[in-house]
Specification:
The chain is of the alpha/beta class. The protein is built from 14 helices and 11 strands. About 45% of the residues lie in helices and about 20% in strands.
Length: about 350
């Protein structure tokens, strides 16, 4: 694998009005020699199976990763068929990522909140079905399914299972029951090392090979961009996560940051009655939010500056134990200089 093969990217990151840019983004990533494309699911114009199937037709040797969908929004047969179909379509391999999602959405939609037990049960059910088993009268945290669950076909290769993780308990579950662990945005190198150690220890305790576990990190990237773009892509995105109850606390804890900053940010007048994910802030408002953050948070929790600066940040994440670094919040066409600079950074 080339150096660029350890880099990945999120296609259609965040809230989008259209999925149409997917064609260009996947094609550009493949042309750069990047190793994987990640596709997040939002139940609007970003339905995961449709995006992954479309991406597979364009990805060539790139791995296609659904990151993330949820264990309970599809029947287990539907979810298993999604992975089974992608096992044939994705030439570079397919990984199905599951996560807990945002509690606000489940409450709004009248759906149960996915828990740890459900995620562990889902991994077991999917892996058994992909390996050709028939599951009879399943009754567990994933749900009760009388009858038989079986794909009835042999897959050319079994998809990998990834778990999106914020807190240490979920990281441990990833090591215990999943093949891959996808860490959240804004993890510092020290945070990556701590989370990796938790997952590997859990894998060992479960009798699994910790060296077989892959660690993915999401590196929010704004490379060689003007101030206005850095504010939008780094400050606004970080603020989005910091506002969500539970998310901000776990990011701060993972990185060993000061929780007092989180309290100050949430009480900031710019955020009064507004959620960063769906708010069009002015540049001045984003500057005011930026000034709440310690410089260290912005410097170590994202990749900004020159292509060489960003390439060094990627290497720090790899040195901390990441197997793949996902350039997040930016399209492949915007990181061409970063990829070339990274290829010249000593490993």
């Amino acid at each position: 694998m080339s150096r660029a093969g350890s880099l990945a990217f999120y296609a259609l990151p965040g809230h989008v009005e259209s999925a149409a840019p997917l064609r260009r983004e996947v094609s550009d990533g493949a042309a750069l020699g990047m190793g994987a494309v990640l596709l997040s699911e939002r139940l609007n114009v970003k339905e995961g199976a449709a995006l992954c199937g479309y991406a597979a037709a364009l990805a060539g040797d790139m791995e296609v990763v659904c990151a993330l969908t949820y264990p309970h929004t599809r029947h287990p047969m539907d979810l298993a068929a999604f992975g089974g179909t992608m096992a044939h379509l994705a030439e570079g391999g397919f990984t199905l990522g599951l996560g807990r999602g945002v509690n606000h959405n489940w409450d709004t939609w009248g759906m149960p909140r996915p828990g740890m037990a459900m995620l562990e049960d889902a991994a077991n059910v999917l892996r058994r079905m992909w390996n050709g088993e028939t599951i009879t009268d399943h009754d567990g945290p994933l749900g009760r399914f009388p009858g038989a669950l079986s794909l009835g076909v042999e897959l050319p290769r079994v998809p990998r299972l990834a778990l999106g993780a914020l807190g240490p308990k979920t990281q441990a579950l990833g090591g215990r029951a999943y093949d891959d662990l996808i860490l959240h945005s804004h993890w510092t190198a020290e945070g990556v090392a701590r989370s990796r150690a938790i997952a590997r220890r859990a894998a060992e305790e479960a009798g699994r090979d910790p060296d077989a576990l892959r660690i993915w990190t999401l590196l929010v990237t704004a490379c060689e961009l003007p101030e206005e773009e850095v504010l939008q892509r780094v400050v606004r995105r970080m603020t989005t996560y910091m506002q969500w109850p539970g998310y901000g606390e776990l990011i701060v804890e993972a990185n060993g940051w000061d929780p007092g900053v989180l309290k100050t940010l949430r009480a900031h007048p710019v955020l009064d009655g507004r959620m960063a994910d769906v708010t069009a802030f002015t540049t001045d408002e984003l500057r005011r939010l930026r000034d709440v953050y310690p410089e260290q948070w912005l410097r170590e929790g994202a990749a900004t500056g020159s292509a060489e600066d960003c390439a060094r940040m990627v290497q720090q994440q790899l040195d901390a134990g990441a197997d793949r670094v996902v350039l997040h919040g930016t399209a492949p066409a915007e990181v061409t200089s970063l990829v070339h600079a990274f290829e010249g950074v000593p490993a």
